[in-house]
Amino acid sequence: MEKFKIQVRPTQPLWNAGMNFAVVNAFDSAKCTGPYRCFNFEYYGYAVGCEAWDRHAGNDFPHGQWDGQVKYKDAAWYSLPGPCPSMGLHDKDQECISREPGGACVGGGTPTGTGDCTYTYEKVGEISIDELEGIENATEFVKKGGYEYNKHTDRGHLNHFWDKKYDYAAAAKRVEITEELFRTKYPDLPEYPDPTCDFNRWRFYSYM
Fold first, then answer.
1. Which helix (H) or strand (E) holds 181?
2. How many independent structural domains does the chain possess?
3. Which helix H or strand E contains 139, and what residues bound it?
């Protein structure tokens, strides 16, 4: 599990529409596949998208079917458009990258909010799944008959990190453990509050 420090700035059209975040775009093998064929890039630039499944706030698009199904409080998805989003990972060429630069600011620094400089990112930490689950030796764990989770029993054996997978309190505890592990491993790492996902599908697509 990797942790990144990300700075974001909306494009002017997005800001004029009253939002800091755009729609979450789906990417398959680094190719943007939706929603609406990713036409939002043409109007708003390569803005960072978010989705948080609050049906009353209009930010549960394009996966509204998950309303009420997400067990992690204040969970959110983000999309950070990269270069040449119209092509798959192995099909991108320099011509496409020049034509469709994506939103990552060249050289880092502070995002300007132009269509091709909406975010910068910096990796600041990493923990392994074994660290997260408290498994010191994965080979020995398996030899002893241990497993992390069984969907039929909703629990693991010799490890109980994922027990009660769909329980709100258990999910909150997993988040707490994760955050504390990062604090312990990276004590000098600043902590920042999570941004509010202010994407609103009705305002966002009012231009259509």
1. helix 168-185
2. 2
3. helix 138-143
Are the CB atoms for 95 and 39 separated by under 8 Å? Answer: no
Say if residue 107 is in the same domain as residue 167: no
Amino acid type, 9: R
CA distance 197 to 207: 20
Kindly tell me the number of DSSP H helices and DSSP E strands found in the chain: 7, 8
Q: Which residue has the tokens 């069984």?
A: 150
Distance CA 67, CA 34 (A): 19
21-72, pLDDT tens digit by residue? 999 999 999 999 999 999 999 999 999 999 999 878 899 999 999 998 999 9
pTM of the model: 0.93
Q: Which amino acid is at 177?
A: I
Query: Measuring CA to CA, how many Å separate 116 from each of 9, 39, 63, 98, 113?
Result: 11, 15, 26, 11, 8
Pair (113, 147) in one structural domain: no
Looking at the fold, whether 119 and 132 belong to one and the same domain comes out as: no
Same domain, 104 and 134: no
